[in-house]
From TrEMBL:
<keyword id="KW-1133">Transmembrane helix</keyword>
<protein>
    <recommendedName>
        <fullName>Transmembrane protein</fullName>
    </recommendedName>
</protein>
<feature type="transmembrane region" description="Helical">
    <location>
        <begin position="23"/>
        <end position="43"/>
    </location>
</feature>
<keyword id="KW-0812">Transmembrane</keyword>
<keyword id="KW-0472">Membrane</keyword>
Length: 72
């Protein structure tokens, strides 16, 4: 598993070394952020609360890991 992670990190680092790829990624992130802010501003109060809770749960640490089985 660690090998796959290291390979993916090297692949991403190689792609992000190109200035155009880095600018494209930053642009995509900025556009996505602006779209979500507009959605949040246009949403009604109930929907805004649901969006806020969804984002909080997305960024919250997991409550239980998949690999916590200690029976082995």
């Amino acid at each position: 598993m660690v090998h796959v992670y290291a390979t993916n990190r090297r692949w991403v680092a190689a792609r992000m070394a190109a200035p155009r790829a880095r600018a494209l990624m930053k642009g995509a992130i900025a556009v996505t952020m602006v779209v979500w802010i507009v959605i949040w501003l246009v949403a009604g109060e109930r929907q805004r609360a649901r969006l806020t809770e969804a984002m909080k749960s997305f960024w919250a640490p997991p409550t239980q890991s998949i690999e916590t089985d200690t029976s082995k």
